[in-house]
Structure formats: structure tokens, C-alpha cells
Amino acid sequence: xxxxxxxxxxxxxxxxxxxxxxxxxxxxxxxxxxxxxxxxxxxxxxxxxxxxxxxxxxxxxxxxxxxxxxxxxxxxxxxxxxxxxxxxxxxxxxxxxxxxxxxxxxxxxxxxxxxxxxxxxxxxxxxxxxxxxxxxxxxxxxxxxxxxxxxxxxxxxxxxxxxxxxxxxxxxxxxxxxxxxxxxxxxxxxxxxxxxxxxxxxxxxxxxxxxxxxxxxxxxxxxxxxxxxxxxxxxxxxxxxxxxxxxxxxxxxxxxxxxxxxxxxxxxxxxxxxxxxxxxxxxxxxxxxxx
Length: 291
Fold this sequence. Notes:
By secondary structure, the protein is an alpha+beta fold. It contains ten helices and four strands; from the N terminus they run ααααααααβαββαβ. It has helices spanning 3-33, 39-50, 55-73, 76-95, 105-125, 133-144, 148-167, 169-190, 206-217, 255-265; strands at 196-202, 222-231, 237-251, 270-275. The protein has a four-stranded antiparallel beta sheet with strand order 2-3-1-4, with helices on one face. Strand 2 (222-231) and strand 3 form a beta hairpin.
């Protein structure tokens, strides 16, 4: 079996798991208690609570224009996967029964958000989406240079304001908690332990640190030229010397390994880590389950 076929099977399995997780979050928690989420799903829930239109129809029909937009703005493959994922979600919501788990509002907000967020996150790992909001945000960002996060936030503020007016303040506040729970779950599943982290190392034995990282860790490194100094007696700068500053990008799971290797060479090395996003190119570990 070729790697391309394996990747396609993984994508399909992830999207299917995402569909059922999101459906369980909706029918097992949110729908019976009239809680909403953000994005197109939130609009669909809000309309289904205030009209007689089935949620499965609303989710598919409202997302359809965003899928078309994704076809024009992103790619044909992406739009096909998005269409399949959203259509699958609509079908499962329409025909698959799920038990109502609880009527405790706090549990609904937290765990309903977790299952819904897990569904969206798994679908994203499979290369699809269950909500068209981010497609719209990307389109507006390209046209107006407004950040995607700002567009999504403004979109959801309007949705929750409408929810407060139509459903009441308390359901709207619990719905915001649902949205936060779902968002954090999505972030964890999409990034999780595989989130990239920049590691900066300053050591007096930089040549040995470079060698051990490249030979035993197998990762590319970048060297910055810097100067190291200390404050001597009389507040004078003392001991100015050139030094190599080593920088590499790893995943969270690999940070401990990097520190261990550096410690073998120089136990007094200065190491600090910073989160990194939007990496491209270079010698990076490929994130699993991604396109």
C-alpha cells in the first residue's frame, strides 16, 4: 500500500471520527439544553431553536456557500473534503440517535464543548472542516488584511449577542463557556504535543553542543553570532567575548531530549524555549496526520 493511500485512509478515518464526536457533543449535550457554539454551527443551532427547520439541513445549507468560497480561495481537494465532512455531519445528525448525557448546565457547557471541539479538531487533522467560519475569515483576511482571529472573534460576538437576545443572558453565557471549551480542545488536537517550539542555547562549549545536536538528534540548527559579557567591579562591563547562539525548532515532546543532550556536554548551558507558529521549509519534523 502506497504512502498516499495510507494518508488518504487516515484522513477519512479522522474525518469520520470527527463527525461522530461533533454529533455526540451536539445531540448528547447542546441541542437538548439549547446551548450554542460559535461560527456557522452556532448560527445553525440558534436558528433551529427559534424555527422548525431541522439542524441537519441548516448546517449543510449555511455551510454550502463557504465550501464554494473555499473551492475558489483554497483548493479543490480541500473543498471536496470539507463538503464530505459537513455532509456527513448533517447525515449523522439526521439519522443517528445519541443519548442525552446530562442536564447540568456546567457539565453541558464543558463536555459538550470538548466533544464538539474534538470533532472539529479531528476533522481538521484529516484535512477537512465542519464549520465554514474560518474559510470566510481567510477570505476577508486576504481582501482586507484583517487577522483571521479578529474576524472569527467579531463573527462570534455577533452570534452570542443574538443568543443573549433570543435565548436569554444565562444560556448565552453558558454558550460562551461552550465555545471556549471547544476552542481549547481544537487547539490541543490540531497542535497538541506536536506544537513547534523554538529552543535557544547559549553555551561556552557551543561547538560540542552543535555536534551532539546534529549527530544524535538529527535536526537542523541555526547559529547566531553574539557577544557575552558580565558586570564587573565598579559597574564596568567586563569580559566581553564573542559567542555562538544556537537555535533549533523542535516539538514539545522533544524539548526534554534536547535539554538532556545539551546537559551531557554543558550542565551550565543557558536554554530557553519560545512557542513557534506558521513554520515552513527547513529541516523540520513532519507533523503526523497532516496533509
